[in-house]
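We modelled the chain as a single entity of 91 amino acids. Its sequence is:
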Amino acid sequence: MNSERYRAYARVRYALGEIRAHLLGESPCEVLRDVAEGFLLAESAEGADLKEMEWTAAATLTALVEGGRLSEVAADWLWGRLLACGPRAKA
């Protein structure tokens, strides 16, 4: 974990707190918070756990967009911030 990843995590938590009651409801927000925390605590960009968390986040955001509860722009922003919480793949 580093300060850049922690700041991304804090932005995700704040954004989810702001929109939870109005658009998303508690369950999707809880899922996305758990993913953000899992990304933050991940030590490596490799591994099945990280891929599963990515899939979970993508599926949750897609369902919110398709259900009209979140705009594509907001989902894209959250996706980028979620990924920023995690470790970067080594080139």
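As a brief sanity check on the tokenised model: The chain is about 80% helix and 0% strand. The longest helix spans residues 3-24.
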